[in-house]
Amino acid sequence: MDQKIRVLIADDHAIVREGLKQIALSDENITVSGEAGTADEAIAKIRDEEFDVVVLDLSLPDRSGFEVLSHVRATRPHLSVLILSMEREEEFAMRCLRAGAAGYLEKRSAPDQLVSAIKRLAHGKRYVSAELAERMALHLDRPAVERPHDLLSAREFEVFLMIASGKPVSRIAEGLGLSVKTVNNHRAHILEKLGMKSTAELIRYAIRHDLIH
Question: What's the confidence (pLDDT) of residue 37?
Answer without folding.
Answer: 95
